[in-house]
Amino acid sequence: MSRHGIKGTARRPDSGAAYPGMSVHGPTTLLFDLGGVFNESHTLDTVKGMTGTTVPDDVLTARWLSSPALRAFELGQSSPRDFAMAFLAEWQITVTPDAFLAAFTASVGQPYPGAEALIMGLRNEHKVCCLSNCNALHWPRISPFLACFDAAFSSHLLGEIKPDEAAYLKVMTLLDVSADSLWFFDDSRPNVEAAERLGIRSFVVDGPRGVRRVLEAEGLIGDQHA
Predict the structure, then answer these.
(1) Which value, to the nearest 10 degrees, does the dihedral of the CA atoms of residues 65, 71, 155, 145 take?
(2) Does the pLDDT value for residue 225 go beyond 70?
(3) What SS3 class is residue 74?
(4) What is the mean pLDDT of the chain?
(5) Of 122, 15, 138, 145, residue with least CA distance to 70
(6) Terminal CA-CA length for the chain
(7) Most CB atoms closer than 10 Å: which of 9, 38, 54, 114?
(8) Among residues of the chain, what percentage have pLDDT more than 90?
């Protein structure tokens, strides 16, 4: 299996549509974001420190998510050097490209405690996958953790990015899974809302504890995962 996914087919969900392999009892496949859900990510704090901005975090997050330079890089359309030059100009940050890239690369850290055990436990009964808006600098940094998943998808390899509808549809095709049998977990509300519009049951979560709370409330795990 490639690191960006596996081949298959899926259809866009329709009202009343039936899908091969659809489960009436719950999801067959769980799809998770990574940064802020299963592993540390301090990228926004790094950018905030470089800019010296005092704007509210939600305003900074919205600007970050709409950054043309970041979008191009996380779609695999620019090199790290080109990304750094474009981003620094876009945000008017006065550090060298090398200094920026070093700080940006280091801003993604290790899995949160308990993340790997939770994922491996879930794989006993579900296909467990991840979909991350990621890039050529961060993806290799977290590659050991990716082995925990049945399939791992990054925007820079997929050629699609959240919250674009095409990102979810492409993953569904590669996994050969329908919206009715897929649950999605992300710490970004716009990403969750985009998945919901496709008929995917989706949840806003914060870290493994947040994931665990949802799974327990939905009856997917019990005390054996505590």
Answers:
(1) -60
(2) no
(3) helix
(4) 87
(5) 138
(6) 31
(7) 38
(8) 76
Q: In the CATH scheme, what is the code of domain 29-39+112-225?
A: 3.40.50.1000
Q: Which helix (H) or strand (E) holds 10?
A: none
Of 9-23, 44-58, 90-104, the range with the highest mean pLDDT is 90-104
Cβ-contact 204, 45 below 8 angstroms? no
Residue 122 to residue 116: CA distance in whole angstroms = 10
Distance CA 191, CA 211 (A): 16
CA–CA separation, 95 and 181 (whole Å) = 47
- The segment(s) of the chain belonging to CATH 3.40.50.1000 are 29-39+112-225
Which of 143 and 3 is assigned the larger pLDDT?
A: 143
User: Smallest Cα–Cα separation from 17: which of 199, 220, 139?
Assistant: 199
Return the residue matching tokens 């055990």.
117
Residues of the chain with CATH 1.10.150: 43-106
pTM for the full predicted model: 0.85
Mean pLDDT of 89-98: 95
pLDDT digits (tens, 9 = 90+) for 120-140: 999 999 999 999 999 999 999
Beta bridge partners of 130: 32, 152
- The Cα 113–Cα 211 span in angstroms is 13
- Report the C-alpha gap between 161 and 73 in whole angstroms: 11
Q: Give dist(CA 5, CA 24) in Å, integer.
A: 25
Specify whether the CB–CB gap between 190 and 184 falls below 8 A: no
Q: Which CATH class for the 43-106 domain?
A: mainly alpha
